[in-house]
Each structure stands twice: as C-alpha cells, then as structure tokens.
Amino acid sequence: MTYLLFHKPYGVISQFSHSEGERPTLADYVKTPGLNPVGRLDHDSEGLLLLTDNGWLQHRLTDPRYEHPKTYWAQVEGDAQPPALAALAAGVQIFPDFRTRPAQIRRLDGADAAALPPRTPPVRFRLNVPTSWIELVITEGRNRQVRRMTAAVGHPTLRLIRMAIGPLRLHGLAQGVARELREEELRAIAPHLEPEKPGRRRRRLYSTR
C-alpha cells in the first residue's frame, strides 16, 4: 500500500483525470499510479491531501460517522470577534436541513499567518475592510462547509488552507510537493488501515486537537 501527503496549491483540482480546458490536477504533480485522494479540496482551497491506494482507509477517513477531525485555517473578511467564534463553535445552519456539529475554534495571531506561503494569485481584498485568521477543527465534510460556516456568521472566507487530517500535519511540506508518510505517521493511523475484526473495538489514537 502507498500513502502520500501532498500540499495542494490553489487552483489545482483534487483528481487525477484531465479534461480539456480544465485547471491543473493532481496528475501534474504526483506520478505514482493507482492513487486516490482521501476526501477532496475545492480548486480554490489549499493544503493537505492524503493520497493512497487503500480503499478502506479512504472510507474510514471520509465517512462522517467516524468523526475524524480535520483542521483548517481560514482568512476571513472582517474582524472576527468572540460572538462570531462562539457561534461557529456551537454549530451553525448552513443548509435548510443541516446544522454543523460543534467545532473547535480559535483566532490566530499575525505570527501564525506570516508563516504561510503566499497564494498565487494573491487574495483580493476590499479597501478599508480588515481581515482576520481563524482555525476551525471540524468532524464533517459537507460541500464547501468551512466557507458556508464563516459566511453564516458574517465573515466570508477569502483563503482556506487544510492544515491537518487527524494526526497528519501539513507543517514543513512545501506547496506542490508530495512525500511518503513517516513511520510515526503510519503508526498514528494504523487502526484505520484495515477493516476492524469482529468483536474488537479500536482505540482512538489521537484527539481532535
């Protein structure tokens, strides 16, 4: 089995197949055959993708029943204040029939954002409108969920980066680069690499932080 972490740049589609006139895809960066992304990132989002040929792992990490945490950093329009953050943490209505689960939310400081690589093309700002960065840890994956969440509390997302999938972290991985999982990373996700045997309960090896 193959397990790769990939730092998806802005504008890249989370698939390996090409269609004429489409944007770049994963095939432009990763040449290992037979891999699929675990979950996806929209073309206008960046950050961590896990690529594998292990179909069971894909199922375990994307099925919302298992509540696997995913960490995002979002640059949002406006000065995100505690009431908005509290609303996100409690859960917000993003579809007529869907309210998000409680999430872990914190505001990031300037040093956090300064460490991120610049986006190409740059984010377009509105004159005289401030921006702020927040971290969201969610256990769901509805269509454009984070963007819908921040918009629901009055702070549209301008830039979105997935920083972690469970214990797997983006830190240290350059944009457009893929690498194999390290031994400690494989150990961290080991309970999800093969089907659970009957009568055996798997122990959660990581928290939602």
Brief description of this entry?
The protein has 209 residues and is an alpha+beta fold. It has helices spanning 55-62, 82-90, 110-114, 145-152, 183-188, and strands at 3-8, 36-37, 46-52, 70-77, 93-95, 98-99, 104-107, 131-138, 157-165, 168-169, 178-180. Helix content is 17%, strand content 26%.
The percent range for strand residues is 25-35%
Helix content: 10-25%
The CATH topology of the largest domain, please?
Alpha-Beta Plaits
Beta strands, count: 11
CATH architect. name of the largest domain? 2-Layer Sandwich
Order of helices and strands: EEEHEHEEEHEHEEEH
Low-confidence stretches: none
Structural class designation: alpha+beta
Notable characteristics:
single chain; 209 residues; alpha+beta; Alpha-Beta Plaits; 2 domains; nine-stranded mixed beta sheet; 5 helices; 26% strand; globular
Task: Describe, in plain words, how this protein is organized in 3D.
The chain has 209 residues and is α+β, with helices and mostly antiparallel strands. It folds into 2 domains: 1-67 and 166-209, 2-Layer Sandwich (Alpha-Beta Plaits), CATH 3.30.70; 69-165, Alpha-L RNA-binding motif (Alpha-Beta Plaits, 2-Layer Sandwich). Helices cover 17% and strands 26% of the residues. The protein has 5 helices and 11 strands, in the order βββαβαβββαβαβββα. A hairpin with a 2-residue loop joins strand 5 (93-95) and strand 6 (98-99). The model has no long low-confidence stretch (mean pLDDT 91).
